[in-house]
Amino acid sequence: MIMVSDLSSERARVVRQLNQAGIPVVGIPLFPWEHGYYFTVDNAPQATKRYEQWKRWTAEHGLVWDWVGLDIEPEARVYQQLMANPWGLVPILLPLLRDRQRVRRAREAYGALVNQIHADGWQVENYQFPLIADERRVGSTLLQRLMGLVDVRTDREVWMQYTSFVGSLGPGILWSYGPESDAIAVGTTGAAPTCPATPSSPR
């Protein structure tokens, strides 16, 4: 997977090297850090425009992608506040519960983006926190409204079961959610230099 937050010639060169080596690559279009980095519940229209920019950059440099990935997560400021002071999340998150149509709008917008990516010839995967499975079972949207998750369906759903974040609970999470997932991400090596909001973790 290649996180594409800058549409640079240098990054394109790396992708071409992987293409030439015959290594399958998933391209994940993202925003530059100063524009928010992640695709979120609130920036779906901008995410669609960013995908179009990414597609033009792909064509310009002759890049080959096996899949396109959609990394739809909470806003970067949520992660920043979580690291600084978790209680500071309360005034950030509570107002989000008032707009009950917010999740529906985002789901429809990202569903349309998935259809567009299909029309452009790629399969799509997305990255989801496994707690979304519990919401689906009970028919709730609380976590989606509170945390900004978007339950958009794609060809392959990768559950972010980051054992690096939960210590000794990691094996239990894998046993609980792993068997029903299409694919799983089980660890993280910490933040990239261009994404200071992502918590760093041991390997």
Q: Mean pLDDT across all residues, rounded?
A: 82
Shape: globular
Low-confidence stretches: 189-194, 199-203
Largest sheet: 6 strands, parallel
The percent of residues in helical segments reads 40-55%
| Helix/strand order, N-terminal first | EHEHEHHHEHHEHHE
Task: Domain count, please report it.
Answer: 1
Strand content: 5-15%
Number of strands: 6
The N- and C-terminal alpha carbons lie at a distance of: 18 Å
Q: What brief labels describe this structure?
A:
12% strand; six-stranded parallel β-sheet; 6 strands; 203 residues; 9 helices; alpha/beta
Written account of the structure:
- By secondary structure, this protein is of the alpha/beta class.
- The protein has one domain.
- Helices cover 43% and strands 12% of the residues.
- The protein has nine helices and six strands.
- The protein has helices at 9-20, 44-61, 76-84, 89-93, 102-119, 132-138, 142-147, 163-166, 170-177; strands at residues 2-4, 26-29, 67-70, 123-128, 156-160, 183-185.
- A six-stranded parallel sheet has the order 1-2-3-4-5-6.
- It is globular.
- It starts with a strand and ends in an 18-residue tail after the last strand.
- Residues 189-194 and 199-203 have low confidence and may be disordered.
Concise structural overview:
The protein is an alpha/beta fold.
Write the layout of secondary structure elements.
Blueprint: E1 2-4, H1 9-20, E2 26-29, H2 44-61, E3 67-70, H3 76-84, H4 89-93, H5 102-119, E4 123-128, H6 132-138, H7 142-147, E5 156-160, H8 163-166, H9 170-177, E6 183-185
Parallel strand pairs: 1-2, 2-3, 3-4, 4-5, 5-6
